[in-house]
Design a protein that fits this description.
It comes from Pacificimonas flava. The chain is of the alpha/beta class. It is 37% helix and 16% strand. The protein has one domain: Aldolase class I (TIM Barrel), CATH 3.20.20.70. It binds ligand LCLJCK34, the ligand Cc1nc(C(=O)O)sc1CCOP(=O)(O)O and magnesium ion.
C-alpha cells in the first residue's frame, strides 16, 4: 500500500549534518472539484511530469456512486505510480474503495471511528486550520498527518483561517507526524512554506487550472522541491 507518512529509515540516508531528519517536502494533489471522463488521461500526464506522493479525491458535489466510480477508475492509475489515494470526508467510501486513507475536516467525524473502520495501515489526515491546539489534539487522537491552511487566497473553497508559515516550523519541532500546507499554493509562492518546514504541499487549482497544462505545473513543483 502506498504510504505518505515519514519513512523512519529516510533520515539515516543523509550523511551526518545533512537534512533535518525529515524527508524533503513532497507534492499532495487535491482532485479538481468535478470529475470529467477525460481526467484519467490528464492524471497520467501529471504523474509522468514529476513526483506526487498522494492524491485526494475531493468531489464535494458528487453522489456516492459518482465518487465510487471515479475512485474505481483512478485507483489503479495511482497505484501504478505508487501514489496514495486519499478520500475526502468519507471513511465509509474510503473503505469501500480500499483507498489508502481519508482526510477529515473538523466536522467530518471522529478519528478513532475512522481508524476502527479503516485499520492500522490507513492514512488519516486532519484539518487543523491555524490551530496548534487542534493539531496536538489530532496527533493525540491518532492522525497520520495534520493539515494547516489556508496559507494564501484560494478560489477552490471559502476559507476563514490564515496561518503564519511559522506554524509549520513549530510543528516539526514538536511532532514527527507530517504536516501538510494547503490553500492557494502554486510554484510561485510555495518556497516560504517549504522553507518553514512543510512536509507536503497540498495543491488543487494551481495544477488543474494552469495556463499551459497541469503537467507543466507539476514539473514546476518538481523543480522547486528538488532545489
Ligand atoms: C490536505 C487537506 N487539508 C485540508 C483539507 C480541508 O478539509 P475540510 O476542512 O474538511 O474541508 P473540505 O475539503 O472537506 O471542503 C483537505 N480537504 N485536505
Ligand atoms: C480544500 C482546501 N482546504 C483548505 C483549508 O484551508 O483547509 S484550502 C483548500 C483549497 C485547496 O485548493 P487550492 O490549492 O486550489 O487552493
Ligand atoms: Mg471535509
Amino acid at each position: 500500500m502506498a504510504k505518505i507518512d515519514l519513512d523512519p529509515e529516510f533520515a539515516s540516508r543523509f550523511p551526518e549534518g545533512e537534512g533535518d531528519g525529515r524527508p524533503p517536502c513532497q507534492l499532495y494533489l487535491i482532485s479538481p472539484p468535478a470529475y470529467d471522463p477525460g481526467f484519467p488521461e490528464v492524471l497520467k500526464a501529471v504523474l509522468d511530469a514529476g513526483p506526487v506522493a498522494a492524491f485526494q479525491l475531493r468531489l464535494k458535489d458528487a453522489s456516492d456512486m459518482e465518487i465510487m466510480r471515479a475512485g474505481g477508475v483512478l485507483k489503479p492509475i495511482l497505484a501504478a505510480y505508487d501514489v496514495a489515494l486519499i478520500v475526502n470526508d468519507r471513511p465509509d467510501l474510503a473503505r469501500e474503495l480500499d483507498a489508502d486513507g481519508v482526510h477529515l475536516g473538523q466536522g467530518d467525524g471522529d478519528i478513532a471511528e475512522a481508524r476502527s473502520l479503516l485499520g492500522h495501515d490507513a492514512q488519516i489526515g486532519v484539518t487543523c486550520h491555524d490551530s496548534r491546539h487542534l493539531a496536538m489534539e489530532a496527533a493525540e487522537a491518532g492522525a497520520d498527518y495534520v493539515a494547516f491552511g489556508s496559507f494564501y487566497d484560494t478560489a477552490t473553497k471559502e476559507t476563514v483561517h490564515r496561518p503564519d508559515p511559522s506554524i509549520l516550523g513549530w510543528w516539526t519541532t514538536v511532532s514527527e507526524i507530517p504536516c501538510v500546507a494547503i490553500g492557494g499554493i502554486s510554484p510561485g509562492n510555495a518556497a516560504p512554506l517549504v522553507e518553514a518546514g512543510a512536509d507536503f504541499l497540498a495543491v488543487s487549482g494551481a495544477v488543474w487550472n494552469h495556463a499551459d497544462s497541469p503537467a507543466a505545473c507539476v514539473a514546476a513543483f518538481a523543480d522547486l522541491l528538488r532545489a
